[in-house]
Amino acid sequence: MTHNPIRTQKIAFFLLFLATLLIVVPVGLIVVIIIVKGLPAINWQFLTDMPRQGMRAGGIFPAIVGTIYLVLGAIIFALPIGLLAAIYLSEYAKENYLTRIIKLAIVNLAGVPSVVYGLFGLALFVVFFKFGASILSGSLTLGIMILPIIITTSREALESVPQSFREVSLSLGASKWQTIRHTVLPNAIGGIITGTILGIGRAAGETAPILFTVAAFYLPRLPQSIFDQAMALPYHLYTISTQVPNVDEKVRYGTALVLMVLVLFMNLIAIVIRYRFRKKKKW
Amino acid sequence: MRKIKEFIIENLILICGLASIFFVVLIFLFLLKEGLSVFKIVSPLNFLFGKSWYPISEPPQLGILPLILGSMMVTAGAAIISIPIGVACAVYIAEIAPPKIKEPLKAGIELLAAIPSVVLGFIGMVTLVPWVKQLFNLPTGLTALSGSIMLAFMAMPTIVSIAEDALYSVPKSYKEGAFALGATHWQTIKRVILPASSSGILAAVMLGIGRVIGETMAVMMITGNSAVIPHSILIPIRTLTATIAAEMGEAVVGSEHYFALFAIGIVLFVISFAINVTADLFLHKKQ
Predict the structure, then answer these.
(1) Confidence band of B231 (pLDDT split at 50, 70, 90)
(2) SS3 A218
(3) Which of A218-222, B22-26, B31-35 has the lowest mean pLDDT?
């Protein structure tokens, strides 16, 4: 048998293509199945009604509201800290040991398993600070979890602003902070918004960090304050698919669809914004 | 006045810059604070290698070996599936895919990374689990194998995107050199590009595995949650993460069970820390 490099290449490329299909096709199938089976459940009542009959009927309104509160709380906490941390890394940090440790800490924060965040939130916010299982505890836990996403994307955005912009501003007599405030930040705003939205998407979809810090199994009313428990979409999907027997298939798929659309929509917005700002860039 | 304002702002920036270190240390300290108490009633060795996990029997038996083995089995299965497919897909995207479909492909795979794990768990329950049950004629489809397949899909986006970065960053001159010597595209990929990007690909694989070990919801929903020492991939198992998620709701704050679950948290934290630090070293080696 003679060795034919061209034929080997054809076979190899075909296998690589097959591997790609093995990822893409199931992803497409997952999305299509959820849309097709979930869509019939979606109507105005499903989105705006309280769950009834032990969550076997009615809507998912409190879970949607709970998720919105949690995500807002997480962003209010994480965006200022994350943005300032990104400014530190991009504008102030020198190439030294401390910077290296900060970057390593960010990588580790991003890699901590989500259920460990749940434990941490339970120990620190629920038990130690005595916030109880509440929107406050859940938001803070989610906020720390999305911090690395916001820091990393904002830092990339800040660093992509050309050095000459800063030099011009400084040479006109502006201080370092004025330069950051009026020159660097406005030019990096696209990337910062992208990071924020990606953080929102992540916080909206996570279940494990809210299991012990806020999530209520069945609470057919809206939370009154940040010290209340709340229902949340991902936890609601978990309970109706594993904890409550005889839930209509349609309700499960409907809930999964709402959650998936919410998260994917956030990601889509982030992608569009990133694309727009890249196109607008004049440098 | 302006000086004072800037002084405050710049110090605030420095404090926030250090926040990541602060939070990593805080997480570890609070896990230790709650978790170490368990070693008053069970020695670290018996905790890690004890064969029975009956946290609410009297006295409680707190050995997490079945859970460690459960995690290892699901992780190994997911690695076997996701590493070859993930790396192959990364090569396809970086080297072979026509420019027109390259970006949509990458976006599609990022999409997979964004789907919440509880949604994937749900979809696994209603599609994959019955399928595995039927295929192998089992009493239940909630098995380690189902978990491995589902987790492989959660590891792949990480593997593909980091490996693709590594492949893409191989200098063009390497490729041109190989072409000039008469090598085919495939020979160039196999002999030049893959070896040149090996440390980045290794990092991609490690981070993918890190994601699998830490994954909680999907694995809890489809592996059947039975805390026994696994002897086959076709039986229900239980992982470290699922144990915490499933049992913490019932554990009384300050009980032995509560401490033991935090001690499992310490184990998970240490594993993910080790994986991330090593992967980071590999990623920096290439530069």
Answers:
(1) confident
(2) coil
(3) A218-222
Share of chain A above pLDDT 90, in %: 69
Q: What is the pLDDT of residues B126-156, one digit of tens each?
A: 999 999 999 999 998 899 999 999 999 999 9
Cβ-based neighbours of A145, under 8 Å, separated by 6 or more: A74, A112, A114, A117, A202, A203, A206, A209
- Residues B97 and B101: their CA atoms lie apart, in Å, by 7
Tell me what percent of chain A is helix, strand and coil, each rounded to the nearest 5.
Answer: 75, 0, 20
In a domain, A37, yes or no: no
For residue B237, being part of any structural domain is answered with yes
B143: left (phi over 0), alpha (psi -120 to 50) or beta: beta
Residue of B6, B11, B18, B23 to mutate when probing chain A, most A C-beta within 10 A: B23
In a domain, A201, yes or no: yes
Cα B130–B133–B134 angle (5° rounding)? 90
State the residue range of the domain holding B56: 49-283
Q: CB-based burial of residue B134 (10 Å sphere; 0-12 exposed, 13-18 middle, 19+ buried)?
A: exposed
> For B241, which of A115, A237, A263 is closest by C-beta distance?
A115
Domain count, chain B: 1
> Does A28 map to a domain?
no
d(CA B35, CA A9): 54
Please state, in angstroms and rounded to a whole number, the distance separating the CA atoms of residues B151 and B83: 12
Contact between A123 and B31 using a beta-carbon 8 Å cutoff: yes
Looking at the structure of chain A, the number of domains it has is 1
Q: Do A111 and B273 touch (CB under 8 A)?
A: yes
Closest alpha carbon within chain B to A272: B107
* pLDDT recorded at residue B218: 92
Domain span including residue A275? 44-49+59-280
pTM: 0.92
- Chain B nearest CA to A211, separation (Å): 7
CA B89 to CA A225: how far, in whole Å?
A: 48
Q: How many CB atoms lie within 10 A of CB B158?
A: 22
The reported pLDDT for the residue numbered B107 is 82
What CATH number should be reported for the domain holding residue A90?
1.10.3720.10
What ipTM goes with this model? 0.91
